[in-house]
């Protein structure tokens, strides 16, 4: 429901006489996911489809808040799109369009797992296509494809993990504020904003980061069959490269554009005249294979430090390329 329609309903409720019962829960539900045809195939009664599944922006597991209703997170949206494609017997191939700098470790890992499960369950080929960026967790997700393309101008790579630590103790001391937590054990407030890390605590957190880093390397080595684990390790220093260099380094299979990925999906799906569709909650007129999802994407810079009452926002591990962080 559009914001204007919702406001009209609210105005009617306020100004109408008597008592009216309105199912507000239904009003606050977001738009239903739907299929939008981008290219019409030659089939008349039956169509062989290529479905475009979009993964855009920072990959998070939390709902995005909006004025009227929460928007689904990238994990939920990706799963919904894959389920939509898997339930349609006419879908013969999927193009996974990735434009993401990564995100939370668990969210990225969950999305990658959903893609692998989709491939195993449906036997439908998945062709990945990295757009402007497929870095860190964006790349982690993309390597779950059967074949991976990158635009020549794509930013690819940034294999690695980051856990931010902020020490505000010096600043707080200047304004006369101190933190004295009551805790059950010395390490209960590890990574606290209100004091420096001890050497032992740094080692503990480094072990946590190293475990997630190992999983990243293993995932890339599994997805990029032309690279050994040792070769992946030699590239897993956080660097980013262009799509052209990524192909030379075998981080992707081929350099190409969206239509090249679609052609590859057509070949793998053995489709003569494909109908190309995407799944969206906001259909657009004049849409084509370059049309993105209608929802706004959060930028990497939108991951902010937020202080709540008595504690900081939950520290999280990220597969994220965020220059300047």
Short description:
The chain is of the alpha/beta class and 325 residues long. The protein has helices at residues 3-15, 24-27, 74-86, 105-122, 137-142, 169-174, 199-223, 229-235, 243-248, 258-268; strands at residues 34-39, 49-56, 91-100, 102-104, 126-135, 147-150, 155-157, 162-163, 240-242, 254-255, 275-280, 307-308, 311-312, 317-320.
The CATH architecture category equals Alpha-Beta Complex
Low-confidence stretches: 24-28, 293-313
- Report the C-alpha radius of gyration, rounded: 23 Å
The total of beta strands comes to 14
Main beta-sheet annotation:
9 strands, mixed
**Termini Cα gap:** 38 Å
Q: Please report which band the strand proportion falls in: under 5%, 5-15%, 15-25%, 25-35%, 35-45% or over 45%.
A: 15-25%
Please state the structural category.
Answer: alpha/beta
Helix content: 25-40%
Tell me the domain tally: 1
Topology diagram in text:
Layout: H1 3-15, H2 24-27, E1 34-39, E2 49-56, H3 74-86, E3 91-100, E4 102-104, H4 105-122, E5 126-135, H5 137-142, E6 147-150, E7 155-157, E8 162-163, H6 169-174, H7 199-223, H8 229-235, E9 240-242, H9 243-248, E10 254-255, H10 258-268, E11 275-280, E12 307-308, E13 311-312, E14 317-320
Helix pairs in contact: 3-4
Provide a descriptive summary of the structure in words:
- The chain has 325 residues and is of the alpha/beta class.
- The protein has a single domain (30-292, 313-320), classed as 2-enoyl-CoA Hydratase, Chain A, domain 1 (Alpha-Beta Complex).
- Helices cover 34% and strands 20% of the residues.
- It is built from 10 helices and 14 strands.
- It has helices at residues 3-15, 24-27, 74-86, 105-122, 137-142, 169-174, 199-223, 229-235, 243-248, 258-268, and strands at 34-39, 49-56, 91-100, 102-104, 126-135, 147-150, 155-157, 162-163, 240-242, 254-255, 275-280, 307-308, 311-312, 317-320.
- Strands 1, 2, 3, 5, 6, 7, 9, 10 and 11 form a 9-stranded mixed β-sheet that branches. A 3-stranded antiparallel β-sheet has the order 4-14-8. A two-stranded antiparallel sheet has the order 12-13.
